[in-house]
TrEMBL record:
One of its GO terms (molecular function) is metal ion binding. Residues 5-128 form the VOC domain. The keyword Metal-binding applies. This is VOC family protein. It comes from Naasia lichenicola. SUPFAM superfamilies: Glyoxalase/Bleomycin resistance protein/Dihydroxybiphenyl dioxygenase. Keywords: Metal-binding.
Length: 128
């Protein structure tokens, strides 16, 4: 098997419209397509970032909560590469997004910081 690249990342939200507004309005994704799947009472939206990556955003009735913080089993977090971590965190904070303080990755010496989507899912900005 030869993996060429990551095709998509899937996120389940508790409030589809709220999460869609966050990923589009705050993080700058664009909506490529969306469909309501009546048989599952579920929305599915395909979101693009700079025309390159796809984030599948789902809603399901009463999804279980994430059991703990980033150290729960499963996908730990999604990281976005940025040129200016401090500026990105300042912009997110100004938009009401919960953010942690900027810190230095001890392995690379690069700046990084975590922030959270409307459901508290951990996201990260990482210095290019």
């Amino acid at each position: 098997m030869q993996i060429r690249r990551i095709h998509h990342i899937a996120v389940i939200s508790t409030d589809y419209e709220r999460s869609k507004a966050f990923y589009i309005g705050i993080l700058g994704f664009t909506l490529k397509s969306e469909v309501f799947r009546a048989e599952r009472d579920s929305w599915m939206g395909d979101l693009a970032l700079n025309g390159e990556y796809i984030l599948e955003l789902f809603s399901f009735p009463n999804p279980p909560a994430r059991p703990t913080g980033p150290e729960a089993v499963g996908l730990r977090h999604l990281a976005f590469e940025v040129d200016d971590v401090e500026g990105s965190i300042a912009e997110l904070t100004a938009k009401g997004v919960r953010c942690e303080e900027v810190r230095i990755d001890p392995h690379t010496g690069r700046r990084m910081a975590f922030f959270f989507d409307p459901d508290g899912l951990p996201l990260e900005v990482y210095e290019a």
